[in-house]
Every structure is written in structure tokens, then in C-alpha cells.
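Dear support,

We are seeing what looks like truncated structure output for some complexes. This example has two components. We would appreciate it if you could run it in full and send us the complete C-alpha cell output so we can diff it against ours.
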Amino acid sequence: MNLENYESKEFFDELIGKGGRPRVASRAVWKYLKSLDENELGERRSACDLAALVAGITFRVYFEDTGVDRAMPFDLIPRVIALKEWETIEAGLKQRVKALNCFIEDLYNDQDIVRDGVFPAELLENSENFQEQCRGISPPLGIWAHICGSDLVRDGDGTVYVLEDNLRIPSGVSYMLENRQVMKRVFPELFEDSGIQPVDDYPSQLYDTLASLSPSPSDYPSVVVLTPGMYNSAYFEHAYLAQQMGASLVEGRDLVVDNSDRVFMRTISGLEPVDVIYRRVDDDFIDPEAFREDSMLGVPGLMRAWRSGNVALANAPGAGVADDKVVYAYVPEIIRYYLNESPKLDNVPTWKCQNPDEMAYVIDHLDELVIKPANESGGYGMLIGPRSTKKERDKFARLIRKDPRNYIGQPTLSLSTCPTFVQNGVAPRHIDLRPFVLSGLQTYVTNGGLTRVALKAGSLVVNSSQGGGSKDTWIVDTEVS
Amino acid sequence: MMLARLAENLFWHGRYLERAEDLARLINVTAHLNLDLPSGLSAGWQPLIRITGNAARFEENNEEPNERNVVRFLLFDDSNPSSLKVTLEHARENLRSARDLVPREVWEQMNALYLKSTEQLNSKLSKRRRQDFLEELILECQQMAGTLQGTMSHDHAYDFMLIGRHLERADMITRILEVRGYDLLPDTAEDLGPFESIQWMSVLKSLTGYQMYRRHVRSRVSGRDVLRFLLRDGQFPRSVMYCLLVLEDLIGGLPGEDDRSLRSVTHLQRLLNDTQAKSLNGRELVSFMDQLQIELAQTDLAIRHTWFGSEA
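Here is the complete output from our reference environment:
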């Protein structure tokens, strides 16, 4: 196919460098794409659609009459990162997640970081995700966020930044796995001796991580995945991971906590003990005794059982305290404080409206900054300054003055692009990357992660709820290929 | 390990799918029968309302129990909890929750059956198309049963579906016999109506039992023999006894010490064996069928309590 004219003018392109030449790790795939004629390409694309259909069929059939579509369109051109670069990112992620876990453990126990004046006490007092019920608890291995999904972006000069950390119930890993399945089916030639690192071991790594948390010494811990139920938008992923791990997929009503604070599931043979719960239900809903009384999704007494150490919860309740966007601004200090190392991955420069002079700067520069509320995810409640109207900016100025703790400002990054199929050929589209980090006895980072792509020209919003798609992500060992 | 909730979903899926199939059979057979009988003798469509146990709800609407109204009530009516449409919805929803436990084809068949039926049920069905539609539906239910039988491990998940199916089937047979038998069984043995035979044939046909009856009973179609066949034959899959034998076998293989369900099933078998079905008159038949239905409800309750954790 004709790719000669592809160019991503003012942005950093992941595949194509200056002068239209593919980067080293992308040479093989670019050459291959070029070698395909229109017919072959058409075949690949329909094979891809078909494979995605087969892979996604469970999902489609579930929702075919409830108005929920398969969450993400899939793009055939992979996003490629050289293994060498990836290794530094991986090290940075491990460092970051380790520090965040120390931070959470400290916040719920001695609060040294507050006493030492590194993290402001008033931030903690106003934190929506700080759970009073978790005070004084130290979960096994001191780990709270066992599964972390951090969003990475690359700016115009090629620097990779962490945009946010998702420490509550990050999702999307099933798309990463499914996208790879599709690609292997459609481009088997490319996977032969090209040094693409595998991603398929995630479910077994996840299982090992969860099993390592089991409070009962047994070779066969009972691990379950707790889902809000089949109408949850991520139910497909819950079912998929449970199946891949050989764990039971349970709902709140399947579990019961007895008087001695032990957790059981209701089976046809009576009550059977549960050791580890990978919960995909929000903190607020997991236990009506401890949190929202009106929750129908939770298990009464689950917090008691967890507190008593009779069951492991992943992620631990309260872990979300470290993923609000104001805490984010402090992560570099957090890394230095707990690990005595300098951060290996950069944070996006962030103005905290908490501080009056930073707030003044933000309000003066609303037209060039991105404004984010501390506790929203999925791209909701944001202001993208350069694209905003005067009216929207005035609204945000009011919101920020009313509740400064809840807002941060960041420069508008020029997100990197990746060649993506569009109506007429191939064009650059902005992307990000969500790697997943597992922390248990060992720390594991996925080879790559989920690349999300904003399918609309010029759009920076990659969230699937707002029209984003996804791509396979290749970590390529260039020494091999 | 099997979650109680999923076992319950599969049990109900089995019940609802059987209910849908039985309903389709009943409607088609009634339509045929009414064509064969002189209008004065025809029992009309009223008995179907009684069989499905929703007389009170139907009467609320103050509609005449003619073909159009009864069929609409039984097929499309959203307010009738046993209408075909609602029954298929329940069959599908219950299977949906437990779909990871059954072969994918079965879920796809269920889904296709539901979608197709809803579409048909939402359009105006002529008599002719109605019959074709119901016949196809019966075949599709049979096809699902066949796919399950031939592709699913006969594990507890499978057992619970079958338990639901046979409990529902036994219950439906007693309802058909109760309603039709009361109309058909004369109070004295001599009092035979001229169309008795054709009506009993329709009872057999509603349970696809005509051919098997002919082969195994080898006598003219009489009320006494039909009753005996449909209640006590141990080989015909749509006799009450056959259902009870299947239930005994399946329930006996389930985990746990609680034997209430099993005792309830064997009690039902004894009731059948001890009753001289041949000598029942209409009134006695009705009360015997009531007795069976009450005991079947006890079985249902015991199953739910023992394996699904419902309160007794």
C-alpha cells in the first residue's frame, strides 16, 4: 500500500521519524504494510474484523439488545516501542508503584510523610478516597495496590510522562490480550522472528499475584473475582479474567461473612471458604456494613473479614487515596521520600490549585492549560483550555475558586501519534498507553499494555466512553529482528 | 464447585424453556381439536387459561375467552407472567447469567430463539403463521435439549437444567389432565360422549404421546388408558412417572445430606402407584391432580432450600 505520503507534522510519531523514515523497531512492520497491495490489505482488514468479531462475540451477544456496543474499535496498525526504551519505562513503573504502596501504607498507619512535612495534612483531610475504616491496617506484604494501571503519554519532544495512576479498579487489560490474539491471527508472518515480546502470560501472572496474598497456607488458595454483575460495562473483562485464571466469578450475593469474620461462597455443596477476592466493585459498594448501606452489590461484613486478615482484597480498600489527581502532583516527592531515589519516569508538570499562587496562575492561563478535577476518571469534568469557549473557562474559574483542592492544571501536551487506518488510507492519530503493574511477592509489568487511540482527527481524548479505539502494542527487541 | 446462584439460574432456565415448549404444544393442539369438533361440543379456549393457572388475571380484562383473546393472552401478554413472551424472556435471562457453564451454541440458540420469537410475537400472527411459528419453536426447544445432551458434560450444571425441565413437565402434565380430564371423564362408565376418543387423542397429542400410546397400549383410545399411560408409563418421556424417575436419579446424585427433595419425589411415585387411575371419575381426578401438584411444589421448595439456599 502507498504509505509514502504519511506524515505527522508537528507531533512525535511513534512509528515514523523525521524525514518519513520508520524508527528502527518499526521497520519490519512498516515494510510489511507497504508490501501489501490493496487486495491483500483488504483481506487483512476483513480478517481482522472477523477475528475481532469472533474474539468479541461473547461481548456482543451479551449486550446486543441493551444498547451497549463492544466498547472499543480496534485498529490494525500496531504501536511499536523498542525493548531498550521499554526497559527504562518498566523500571520507572515499578519504582512508582512501589513508592505509591509505601505511601498508602504510611497514610493509613504512622503518617510519617505528613509529620515530616512532605505531604500536606489538609490534603489528606479533604481527600475523598481516604477511607477512615482502613486506619491502622497493614495488609499482607504491605501492598495495597496489587493491580495498577498507569496512563502514559509521549510529548512532542519524545519524553514519556505518567499522566495518571489508576489504583482502584483499572480496566482494559482484556483488550490488550484480545488485541494480541487478533493480530497473531491476521499477521502471523510478522510474529515469526521479529522479537515481539509476548503478553499472554498476564492472566497467570495475575493469578500468582492474587494467590500470593492468600491468608491461609494452602497449595490451592480459593481465589474469586467479584463483579458487580453482568450489566456492568466491564463484565466481559471480569468473566474473561476469571475464566483465564480458573477462578470463580462471583457476585456480592454469592458471598457471606460469618460471625467469626470468615468469608464463604454459597455453593450447591454448602458454604465454601474464600481466601482471595479480586474485587471489581468500588470501595463504596463492597460492604454495606462499612460503606454505603444501600449497596446491593457488596458483601455485609467484608471489611471485618479483611481487617481480621481472614481474606485478601485486591486492590485493598482505600488504595484509591493515592490516585487522585492532586496526590499525583506529589508523586515525585513521594518517590524521593520513601525510596530515596530520583523518579525514573516523569510526571507532567502540575499546578495544584490548593496553593493560592498556583491557583492564580491556573486561572490566568485557563486558555492554555488542561484542568482536571481530582476525583473524576474517564475524561469527565475536564477543561481543555485551547479548545474551550470563554463561557466554559468562566465556569471553571468559578468551580476552582469554590473548591481549589479539587483541581489541578497541566500544560496541554502535544500527544504523540501513530499511523491509523482512516476512511481514506492511513493518517496520524493521537495515542496513549496503559501498562498494568502487578505487585505481590514479585512485581510484574505487562510487555507494553493497552494503547488507546483517539479516532477523530486532532482529538486528544482516547477514552473508550468518548469514541476512542485501541491498538496492539509491540515491545520489539531490535537485537533479534 | 458450583455457585448456588448459577445452579438456581439453570434450574429456572430448564423450567421456563419447558414451559414455553408445553405452551406451544397446547395452543396448536387446541386449535386442531376445535377444528374437528362440532361447535356445540367444543370446549373452546377457556381450558387453556385454567391449565396455565391464570384464570383470575384473564378475567380481570373482562374479555370473552375466544381464540383471539386467549391466544393473545397466552402468547404476547406482558402482564401475564406465564405468557410465551415472558416465559422466553425468563428462560433467556436465567441462561444468560449462567452462560459460561453451558456450550456456547446453546446460548446462541437460546438467544436466536428469543430474538426471533419476540419479533414474531410483536408482529400480527395469522392463524396459519402462528401454527408454523409454534411448531418451529417446539423443534428449536428440542434442538437445544439435543445440543445440551450431546455436547455438555453431564455435570451438576446439566443436572440442574434437567431437574427444572422434568419438574415443570410433570407439573404441566397434571395440569393438562386436570383440566381436560374433568371435562372428559364421565361420572359413570357408560356415559361416553360421541367425540370422547377424538378429545383424548388431542390430550395425547398435546404431549406428543399419540404415536407412543398406540404402540405401547394397543387398545382404542379411551380415557382410562390414556390416564394410565400419561401418569404411570415408565418409558414415555412425557409421562409423570417417567419425569419422577429422572428426578429421582438426578437428585440422588447431588451433593449433601439433606434428603427432603428425594423423599418428596419417592412419595410422589408412591402416590401414583397406589392410586387406581383407571377408576377415577372427573371429580376424583381433579383432586388427585391437585394432590400431585401440591407435592410437586413441595419438591420444588425442598430443592430450592437444599441447593439454592432459599429460605424454607
